[in-house]
Design goal:
15 strands, globular, mainly beta, 249 residues
Length: 249
Amino acid sequence: MKSFQMKALALAVLGLAGFGVAGSAMACDNTNLSAWSAQGTNQGTLTVVAGGLEATPSACKLAARLTGTDPLSAAGVVFTDTTTEPTYHFRFYFNQDNIGTLSGLGASAQIFKMNAATLYPAVKANPFLFRLGITSDNTGTNKLVAAVACDNGGNNICLTSPLPISAGNHYVEGALTTGTSGTFKLWLDKNTTAVSPPAPDASLTINNNGWGGGKSIGLGLGAHQPGWTLNQDVYFDAFDSRRQTFIGP
């Protein structure tokens, strides 16, 4: 396997190198989002606020909230690649304490995604290579789960086993490999054991070759289902990614 090159999106909001720690003189405002390709809000808000999520906090973090009942509501940032990415590693911190325990089976919202090089291919129903979400199974504990394009037919996705999310700040890391024998792995809070998605049935494998590689990523909130707690911030920080090719300069 080729070594991965690091692409640190130069954002104060995301707590990357060179922006100091909490208490520095740097302003924490939405001008810090300029390294992303776009910002998207629909019945939602996106704000840069002081105080990072890492053990040694950076100056700022990203606060995303959903304010309306439209399932297409969104509050996030997007980065679009100049080429397609066949292999991708990512990590970021998040804190979802403000939303409390989600009410009802299936209450959820997306927090991160990678979309395919070609959205909505003719025979593919799913535009994404993977999506991460915070969800509930009505047991009183919020959970992190990934939905992954897996069978090249478009109608089936593979889900990782839900990972319980306790109170406080969390570190999530993942790795995607595309192809006829693709892989997806997810780690929560630096656990040494990765969670991989099981196929919906024994005949399916993680075949995501037809999606053509990753083209864009989105960080923030979207695609929420009934039972999601509206008007509460979820925080994101310290986003980093490693790819076979650089994105941007």
